[in-house]
Design a protein that fits this description.
By secondary structure, the protein is of the alpha+beta class. Helix content is 57%, strand content 10%. The two termini are 28 Å apart.
């Protein structure tokens, strides 16, 4: 079994930069957050000990998902995963990764309204707890919450998920610097949430994601991985037996 670091190093199909750099909010002190997707070889899925569904590292600020887990989360409109699919800063991409990106639209649906707004509500409660305890929120988190709500609204309005904040950059950075009152930030959050609610009924997004297209992609990818194992001469006869049809009698 490869180590988690080896899975990321040798089997990544897609990786990108996320965080402030992808959102157009980077400053001189911004970290570089990397996110990726790796495809664990199919033969590893047939063992009792399964490959990990996600890996932290090996670099600082790096996080990767195994392809199947990534697709599962994207189909539920997980905000972090959907945004990863739409990063403008792609660092690594193979043919399977290109096919994944070509399927980006299949993951988008009106379910994003529920998941984005629910996530935002949870983050806002944390900010409110900070205000009660410390007298002020974590301003960086407040900035990103405003960005998330605006992105949700625009996604519902247009059917497209755009990460770069564009002309809103300076207004958002003023929040990060603590130059905007918490009352004003709360007002903006409430307005953006209302605008997202209003955009939902007429959204061009479908009610549900295209689960079948994603599942077909995952099946074809797993099958291709299994066939590559056979062609490369695996030392595990289980791979040859299952893929080649030489199943033994059970009894």
């Amino acid at each position: 079994m490869p180590t988690p670091d080896e899975l990321v190093r040798d089997h990544t199909i897609y990786s990108c930069v996320m965080g402030s750099r992808a959102f157009g909010l980077a400053t001189a002190d911004s970290d570089t957050d990397r996110r990726g997707v790796f495809l664990a070889p199919t033969a590893l899925q047939w063992r009792f000990d399964k490959p990990p569904t996600h890996v932290e590292g090996p670099a600082d600020e790096q996080f990767s998902w195994e392809l199947e887990r990534f697709c599962e989360l994207a189909l539920t409109a997980n905000p972090n995963v959907l945004e990863c699919l739409h990063s403008p800063l792609v660092e690594r991409l193979d043919d399977t990764g290109r096919e994944l990106l070509a399927l980006r639209g299949a993951f988008l649906s009106r379910q994003a309204h529920r998941t984005f707004v629910r996530y935002a509500a949870g983050q806002r409660r944390k900010l409110e707890a900070d205000v009660r305890r410390y007298g002020a929120p974590r301003w960086k988190h407040a900035m990103h919450l405003l960005r998330l709500l605006a992105g949700c609204r625009d996604l519902l309005r247009t059917g497209e998920l755009v990460l770069d904040v564009g002309d809103d950059r300076e207004r958002l950075l003023a929040v990060k610097r603590g130059e905007v009152s918490w009352r004003e930030v709360e007002t903006r959050m409430a307005r953006l949430a209302t605008e997202a609610d209003e955009a939902l009924p007429g959204s061009p997004l479908p009610p549900e994601p295209d689960r079948r297209s994603v599942e077909d992609f995952l099946f074809r990818t797993r099958r291709a991985s299994a066939l590559r194992s056979v062609q490369s001469g695996p030392d595990d006869e289980v791979v040859q037996g299952v893929v080649g049809g030489r199943g033994g009698r059970v009894g």
